[in-house]
Fold:
Amino acid sequence: MNTFLPNDVIYQINYWSKASQPMSRLALEALAKDAEQNNQKHDITGVLLFGAGMFFQCLEGPSDKVIHLFNKIKQDPRHYDITLVSQECHSERFFSQWSMGFTRLPNPSESEQFKQIESWRSQTLLAAPIEVRRLLLSYATPTEGVLASCIH
Ligand SMILES: Cc1cc2nc3c(=O)[nH]c(=O)nc-3n(C[C@H](O)[C@H](O)[C@H](O)COP(=O)(O)O)c2cc1C
Structure:
C-alpha cells in the first residue's frame, strides 16, 4: 500500500511465519520485551503468539507506522516464510492495553486454536479474516494484562 490512511484509522495486519531456529525462553522474552518497548514509542499495539516453531502476530496502529514496522519485521533473520493473513481497517484497537502482548501456545495437539493457525498456512491473503478475528478476540478479552507475561 503506497497511500497512507488518515491517522485516526486503526490499520491492522495479521501474519504468520516460521522461526528460523528453535526459540529458547530467553530469546522469546528478549524479542517480546524489545517489541513492547519499541511499539510503545510508535503507538503500535497488538499480540504475538508463538507455538511449534511458528509465530502469529497482530500489529495495529497508524498505517504508516504499522507498514514501516512490518517491513522491518519481514527482514528479521529470526523468522522466514512470512505470510500476510489479513489486513484490515478498524475504528478501535483490539489490543489497546498491549504494546505487544505475548504468549507461547500449548503443544499443537493440545490446542484447537493452534490447529486453526496451521490450517491458514495454505490460505491466501484475506482468505481467513473471520477466523483471525475470532482468534484475536479470544486473546483480547477478558484477560488483559495477563497475556503480556505469559511466557512458559
Ligand atoms: C516474529 C517477530 C515479531 C517482531 N515483532 C516486533 C514488534 O512488534 N515490534 C518491534 O519493534 N520489533 C519487532 N520485531 C523485531 C524487529 O524485526 C526488529 O528487530 C526491531 O524492530 C528492531 O529494529 P531496528 O534494528 O531497526 O531498531 C519482531 C521480530 C520477529 C522475528
